[in-house]
Amino acid sequence: MPRAARAVLISPVIEHRQPGGSASSLRLAELLAAVSLATDLADDVPYGTTLRDAITVVDFAQLAGLTGDDVSDAYYLALLHHVGCTSAVLPQAKVSGGDDVSARHWYSEADYADRAQLLRLASTRVGREWGLGTRVRAFTGLVTASPAFMAESIVGICEVGARLGERLGAAPNVTEALDQAYARWDGKIFLALPKGEAISRLARLVHVVHIARTFHRAGGTNAADEVIRMRRGGELDPELSDLWLANSAELLERGNTESVWEVAMAAEPRPWREVATSHVDKVSDTLADFVDLKASLAVAHSSHVAELAAAAGGAAGLTGAEVVTLRRAGLVHDLGNVSVPHKVLAKKSPLDRAETDRVRLHPYHTHRVLSVSGPMREIADLAGMHHERPDGSGYHRGLPAAAIPFAARILASAEAYRSMLEPRPWRAALSPGQVADELRREAKEGRLDRRAVDAVLESSGQGGPRRRSERSWPSGLTDREVDVLRMLAGGRSNKEIARDLHVSEATVHTHVINVYGKIGLNTRAGATLFALENDLIQL
Question: H or E element: which one contains 27?
Answer without folding.
Answer: strand 25-27
